[in-house]
Automatic annotation (TrEMBL):
GO MF entry, a single one: dipeptide transmembrane transporter activity
Protein name (record): ABC transporter permease
Species this protein is from: Rubrivivax rivuli
Transmembrane parts of this sequence: 12-36, 109-132, 144-167, 213-232, 271-297, 317-340
Domain ABC transmembrane type-1 stretches: 105-340
Subcellular location: Cell membrane
One GO CC term on file: plasma membrane
Record's bilayer topology term: Multi-pass membrane protein
Amino acid sequence: MRWRESGPLRGLRAVGGLAFSVALTLLGLLAVTFFIGRVVPVDPVLAVVGDRAPEHVVQRAREELGLNLPLHEQFARYVAKAARGDFGTSVLTANPVWEDVKQAFPATLELATCGILIGAGLGVPLGVWAAVRRGGAADHAVRVMGLVGYSVPIFWLGLMALVLFYAKLGWVSGPGRIDVAHEFSVDRVTGLLLVDAALAARSSGDWSAFRSALSHLVLPASLLGYFSLAYISRMTRSFMLHELAQEYIVAARAKGLSEARIVWRHALRNAMVPLVTVIALSYAGLLEGSVLTETVFSWPGLGLYLTNSLQNADMNAVLGATLVVGTVFIVLNLLSDALYRMLDPRTRDTRAEVPR
């Protein structure tokens, strides 16, 4: 006889396995970052007390920070604190690291979200167009555009964009998130400056702060959008070429369906199943990889915070920011897996039948 595993038990086992996997991944990320931070030739104690501090002051600070303990004990203490949400105090800002991260992350989230909207909104149609026009001028143009996006360093593109569109043409605003004149005129409700400026403008009727925030956002968001567009358009083209070569496409054409309906309603619908994962991972890449863009544009996000922390040997801030980035990457990866299962019924787990 066979019995079927009950739904609640199966769901509980899946959730437990997922939680264990996430915890193990975060622990591994924390361990790698922690031990790398301890072996780099930078003494975090000197970052606190200064290079000219007396030896007894250095030793006392080392003991207070727990840096005189063996590495495994230091790591155990840090993990215990991190589990309670305590990532220590930043040397650079003298604030709790978690408070700094909460202030910096919305800026990165806003920039990366606008970037992925541009990248996916343009990359998917361009990829479809290139696949439909395979071998033609449109196909070659899209492939060259993607190749340039892959090959040219993003910091160089950022500098050239600032020189051209800000310094020469004056079409957009320069570095930063908003003009100094509007810096304190917008109440930070969500942390997303564009949203907060729009909320403030609705109540006051003055849209100058919103226009300033949008003008500052356009250039770095477009740069990140172009960077993700290069990858998304290439993968879309690849997926579409695979789908257009399938037998169901031949059958649809034999039935007399229009080419537009075949491409957009049938081929693209099936190509979107793996493409969802590509877009989600691209989004995660923008959230964790916008360090150079934020540095070039002086964008006060998590990337700039991480860069400044590294330059000042602020290891508490480096570890906290890295863990946040890793958590975001894991969450987006899990979300893409869930969407993948929703779009493709073939990947859904069937009820397990176990011999009794």
